[in-house]
Amino acid sequence: MDVMENDGDSESIYMNVEDAEKISYQSEIYNNILLSTTNENLGSAGAGERRKVNLSNMAAVCLGFLCVLLLAVITVLCIKHNNEMLQMQSSNDNMTTERDRLLISNNIMTVERDRLQSRYIIINNEKEQLWNQNTKLISERNQLQISYNALRAERDALQNKLANQVGCPVGWMRFSTSCYLVSSSTNTWEQSRQNCRNAGADLVIINSREEQEYVSKLGKNVWIGLTDDLVEGQWKWVDNTPVGTGYWGINEPNNGGHRFSNEDCAQVVVTNPVTSNWNDIHCNNYIHYLCEKRDSVQHSIPSPIH
Ligand code: MMA
Ligand code: CA
User: Model-level pTM?
Assistant: First the structure.
């Protein structure tokens, strides 16, 4: 029986069934007694009385049957009710368990949510810090870029300067196989030449078109190492080589242009065209001068004599 398998309340149900059986049994005994009593009475009663007794016997039997039926119905209903109660109890237990589980889960989730919220705030702060740092770094990088460009320009300028000075004394400039120095002060041709010689050089001797261009671009009118002081009209370089055609200005050399003038020393006039800017003037003029110090070992094929 299902009822026997249940605990707790099942016992009371079992008791109810037993009680019902007992009652049924007792009512049967009662009927028998009633019947036997009636039968006893029948002996002394008439036919009408016997019918009455039969009817009441039948009523008693019916009543007994109804009682039994009622008991059976009550028993079934009790069992059913009990089953439903058990199911509800079980369902309630399940729901309680589920609720507890959900409560625990909810607590865990709440804790996790709070943890994540804190983490979010921290990360957000970190993000802002990194953003600021990034902005700062970008600005620093830009400044460094500017400094770098400036330094590079400075380096290039110094490298050029150095390249221009390779193998030359400080302050002298390299061009091809010579070093050059434009004087900072002015002097006569003769004194200028002496100053150059004192520095281990001499007044410049222009041997090529390139050198003529170089001298012309130095930006100052200067004495060059060219004179006709020995023989008027015979222009010679300071190394005694003759000048050839040279780069005289228009109508130069003119020795001053009048009878008593005496222009025996040559200058470069930088405001005139590069290929025609030589002029002869009086050697006692005070102008800047250009010294040339040739490399002791000549790196190039010697220029042809002009
Ligand atoms: C003029 C011209 C030259 C001469 C100088 C002297 C400015 O140039 O006549 O040939 O040598 O004057 O100062
Ligand atoms: Ca002249």
Answer: 0.51
